[in-house]
Structure formats: C-alpha cells, structure tokens
Amino acid sequence: MPSRRRDRRKFLKNTALAAMAMSAGVVDSAHAQAGDSHAPYSKERHLYGRRSRFETATRYIREPGIPLPNYVMAGLTPIQDSIGIITPSGLHFLFTHGGHAPPDIDPRQHRLMIHGMVERPLVLSLDEIRRLPSVSRIHVLECGGNSGPLHYRQALRAKLPFTIQSVHGDVSCSEWTGVPLSLLLKEAGLKKGASWVLAEGADGNRHTMSIPIEKAMEDVLIVYGQNGEALRPEQGYPLRFLVPGWEGVINVKWLRRIKLSDQPFMTKNESTSYLNMGVDGKARWFQFEKAPKALITFPSDAHRLPGRGFYQISGLAWSGGGTVRRVEVSTDGGRTWKDAQLQDPVLRIAFTRFTLPWNWQGEEAVLQARCTDDRGIAQPSLAQLEQFWGVASNYWKTGNFSNFNAIQPWKVNRDGSIVNAMYNF
Amino acid sequence: MPSRRRDRRKFLKNTALAAMAMSAGVVDSAHAQAGDSHAPYSKERHLYGRRSRFETATRYIREPGIPLPNYVMAGLTPIQDSIGIITPSGLHFLFTHGGHAPPDIDPRQHRLMIHGMVERPLVLSLDEIRRLPSVSRIHVLECGGNSGPLHYRQALRAKLPFTIQSVHGDVSCSEWTGVPLSLLLKEAGLKKGASWVLAEGADGNRHTMSIPIEKAMEDVLIVYGQNGEALRPEQGYPLRFLVPGWEGVINVKWLRRIKLSDQPFMTKNESTSYLNMGVDGKARWFQFEKAPKALITFPSDAHRLPGRGFYQISGLAWSGGGTVRRVEVSTDGGRTWKDAQLQDPVLRIAFTRFTLPWNWQGEEAVLQARCTDDRGIAQPSLAQLEQFWGVASNYWKTGNFSNFNAIQPWKVNRDGSIVNAMYNF
Q: What's this model's pTM, rounded to 2 decimal places?
C-alpha cells in the first residue's frame, strides 16, 4: 500500500517501514514469534511489581580502588536512557565513603538526635518525625564531582572507558518527602549565636558535614520518602539530609544526629576534600552550590544513529541555585544556537527536560547544550571555565573536580557513531 | 534537660519525648541494638536497587472470583501509605480482564499497527516509536470502578473487609513518557470521516476499547515510559494507550493495534460493562471522564491515632477534566469546612497533595474532604449523588459502579481507631 502523499510524512519518511504493506496478520505473527505468555496470575509476583526481564539498564558500579580510592564506592545512573524528569529509585546514583555497604537499619530502632546550641535537645523516632507536617518536592541531587575532570583522569589511569554514564551519571532527580529542618530547629529552639549545623550519618564511616544556618532554615528537608515510598537503603534509609542544590556529599544519608554550633565543624570531607583548588594552590572551602548545567542525553556516546533523518535531541538541565530559564542547543559545533523547548513542569532545583527537533543529513556534527538559570547565570564553555580558574589548558589534569559544568560536546561521525569531544586525548 | 519554654513547642508538646534527656550515647546504643551491618559492597545488589527489607507495603491482590468475576484480577495500591504525588511503579494498581497474567512481550518483536480509515497504514517497531518526538507528563490513572459501591457490595458478599486500599486503591499517578497519538495519526493521514479510534491490546483477552477522534487528537499518548524507565509489565510493557482523565479500562495496555473508523466499535467493555445505569434501566454509554475527587489518605481506616495532639491531615485530589483548584476539609462531620493547602506542583489531571493541620483533643470526629476543579465542578456528597441518579438511598445496592466520587467520610473514635463512615451496614 505505497503512499501517493509521502511528503506529508514528516518524521517517518526516512525509515524503513515507509513502504510496508500491512495486515493484521503481520502483527499477529510478530506476537506469536515473541512467545507471549498468558499464564495464570501469580499473586506473589504482583504484590510488589518488578520490571520486565527484557529491561537490563543498571547502574555503572565503580568498585573500591577501581579507579577511585579504596574507601569510595559509586553507582552511576544510566542517564543515557533517562526519560522524563524522575529517576527510578532503583537506578538513583549512589556514592559512599568509608568502604561499607549501606547500613541495614531497622526504622523502629532508629533515632534522630538534635543537640548542641539548642534550648531543648530532642531525640525523635521515625513515627514521631512522620507525624510532623511534611512536604514533598521534586529535586535534583548531584555529586560534587559529577562531570568532573577527575572522572577522565581516573579512567585514563585505570584504562577504563569514560562514557556519558561513567562521567555524568552522578546525578538523579526524585520526589522527596520529609519535614523541613527549619520546623525541627524551631521545635528545639536555637540558642543565640547558633550559626552552623552538623549532620551525621549512621554508616560505618559516620559521615559528617556542616552547613550554615541560613541554608538550614531556607529549604533543607529531613527526608524519609523518595518517589512515593520509603527512601531506598542506598539513598539513606530511613532518614537523610536533603540540601537542595548543594553537592551530594552534604546530603548526609542514614541521618542520626544534628548538632548546632557557632562555627563550622571542619569535618574531613569539608576541610581536606571536596575543595576547589586555585592555581595558587589555595583551596576554596564551603563552596557547595551546584552550577547550572545542561546535558544532551540523546543522542550521546551511548547511542549510534541508525541513518539519516529526523531525531529529537533530548536532554536534562538543572541549576542548584534556582530554576532553568533557558536551554540553547547547537548542532554545528557552536556556530549557531537555537532555543530548546522546555517541558513542563519546570521546577526549582529539579531536572528540566529539554528537546529540539533535528534533521541529520549524514554530516559530521558537534552537538552541545547550554543552560541559563533564572538568576541569569549561564553555563560556560570549557575555555571560559579554564580562563576563570586560571588554567591555560588541560583542565582535566588539575586537582579541581568539584562543580564542573563546562558544556559537554558530543561529536557525531558520518557513520552515526558518537564520541565525547570534551578533551582531545 | 526540661524546658522553660515548652509553649513554643508547637507540634511536639504532646509527645512522650518532650522531657527526654539526651546524649550521644543514647543514639549510639539505639544503633548498636539495631544491628547495623557494615558489610563490604555487593556489586550485584546495587546494579538495580531494592527497597529495605523492613518495608513491606504491597498491593492488595483480588484473585479471580474473590470477589470479582473469575476473568478479572486486580492489585490495588496501598494508598494509605502514599506520600507525595508519584506512585512507585511496583505499587501502581493493576486491573486485568481475561484471567491471564500480563503478557511477557519481547520489545524487539512487538509492533504497533495503525490502520482502518487512514491514508497510509503503519506498522511501527519500538525503536521507531522511540525515535519520534516524545513528551513526559505526570498523570493520574483511575479505574472506572474505583471507590465505587460495587467494592462494598462484593466485599460484603464475599465476607471480605473493605478498607481504604481495597475500596480506593484503584488509582495511581506516574510520570508517563511517550508519543502523542495525534502525531502518529497525522503521519498515517486521517481519511475524511474518520471519527472513532479503536485500541487493541496484545493480552490473552485482546482487550479493545474505542474513543472519539476529538480526545485522540487532544492529549492521548502512546506510552513506553513510566517514572523514568520502561513501562512495567503490569502497566502494559512495552506500549500502552494513555487517555488522560478517562477511566482506566480505556487506557489499553500491551497496545498492538489502532484502527480508525467512522463509528464506535461497540466492544464488550464499552457496550455491556463500564456503563452507568439509570433508574429507568437504561445505560449511559461512552461516559468515561473521571469526576473530581479528594481522598484523605491520612488518617484513614488503616491508621489509629496514638494519642491526642497535632496531626497533619493529608490526602490526594484529582480531576479527570482538569486541574484541582480547591480542596476543603471538614473535621466536624461537615458542619464547617476549611481550605486545605495544595502542594506544588498542581498539575492537570494529576494527583495533587493537600494538607490541613489538625489538633485532636480526643473527641469523636468525622473527617471529610471535597475537591473542586478549575471548571468549577465540585465533588458531591453521597446524598447529592443519590439525588442526581434518582436513587433514594443505599446507592451501593445499585448496579452503578462507574465514576463514583461521593465524599468519603472517616469516623475517628475516642480510642483513636478510625472507621469508614460511607454507609451504615
């Protein structure tokens, strides 16, 4: 049944199916081949559903020492497969210090203590916390080192590939539910001069970080829910700190203690790592807000274009300091830029999905996206970032790894393969 | 460390912890008792994460014949545990005709055929569909019979309890990703007069339903994604029809065929069931839009208030015809109503979380919520609904079961127990 009006077929005209003759039999036999099962229900199987056995996307696990230090383990989100703005909880990135598995905490035994410079120290059970006024918010959570040069350097040293997942997969977005920290601090009563807040986890490492009181009172949540159910163990079950827009390391998991003080606590992770080093060798401390970033997730180095024709360029943008206002996309190596469409809802400190239609005619192309947030802060190119930090070239060789948000270029080759064009190794 | 300013403790003043004296040792020993494990990582365990072994919420499974007809199986969402607006995919409700388990479809073999009154019949693979322009939208999905009198009647006959989960759990909300049906129909080219769209599933039952072309072109999606990953098998993997705001039965799962016609197809489910029967014995056909509804999820009959004091009343509201504009809550059996707070984001045809602070002083109380959508359509009381349908009383005894949205009252007893006060059995 060939068409006489093929020109109207805007998206499908270059695909192989255009001239196929169709009948119900074609579909019937396709399903017969697929071996559909129509077995009776298994009650147990459907109490808590699982994904199809044909779905195989997983986290990319970095085991201790390969290539990270042996006290760090990481699992990176398959961001190349992402759709929409919610990350499935089973695929949310994880990054853990101390070399231990997530603790296996019985929520009935878990307590949160709030003490230090407060009028009324508190110890709260989960039941007590869940009884308090709660809020749910969709927020992005990103590791300080996500996208960073350290990923490239470590991968090169360990002779591992660097891919969109292994370089950019330390970021996820969930609907989080919990109690505003400000509410708990008002219940406890801040003493005069209380200006820093320590959060401590119940993991083997007793992970600790401190944040200024201004952020604590603004939007920090004590979270027990993720995507409509309890937090997953890898994200801090049964309780975590959620510090919207600030580096993952501060979002203390398995939260058991909050202490108020009149000065920062200078914990290991805030005084000896998670720094930004200048060329003068001096470190910048407590610089935790994540900068605006846009990342093209399709197409990227995980994909190969099967042929010329229509593609929808799609990606994720976010800013730790506000709401995404604009995403521009270039398909010609940065010569020209077009405004991408932002998909509703566009929420504060959350993934925003952007798309741009693209017709690929088989040419070499470099795809890039850049984000501007509602404060007008725009994502820099690598050259701009190097200029800012005073590093002439090969930024990836420096010790800096926190808060790297240079525009990520993907180079499309004539054969449809795609490579990371961030650095020329 | 007793407080001299206990009056400031707004939420916690009635809980047992108020006068507790705290030290780090208390928390330490609580965790020692909990037997935290700090075992080395298991790579396999973290490729695709699971929930904590302490989390046990499941669907409520209605097996064939108990109490539903033996060709129907259902799994209802534990809505009493819901937090936020996203339903975890593993707990999304399911309702299946035909008595079979969800088909086990290989997506590489699956095809979608579009034929009938179109210029260019199409057969599309999943890869081809995923290459088309896609959108993601957060939408509620609700079974036609959710909350309906049939639930009560069947439970009574089968001597089963009716609970918030078994009566109201046929509703869930997800972020869905897919291709607008309007785009596919434009590709195929509608023939003059094409006015009805048939959707057919690849399940054992070959489930079929038809919708008018106006709805098809407005907002229907051909969906392959749910909450950031592939559709779950119970929700139609690898492809489903999503008809925003219309009864679940129309949202055909395991979608394999779309046919255009100049008249409705009068399939079994649209001509002999999923009807609304008037007192004159005549059926209303093709009345599929879900009416506005608000449901208090906490506290409800699944909970027991542990004592007097502060509680946050919390629930979900939605409308199949638009956006929730207002939710009012009564704690005194309908004598007075207060506006609940609507939590952002408030999205079209999606769960909207509402909350209202409540101080319970131990009295008998009846809690109710009612929803008004942005068209000004308000949720009726049971008495109003009975008046509308011309049923004097005992609405639950009638054959009507579609689109029931009477206000659900929960009665709080003096001992803190809570019962369903919809009907007096």
A: 0.92
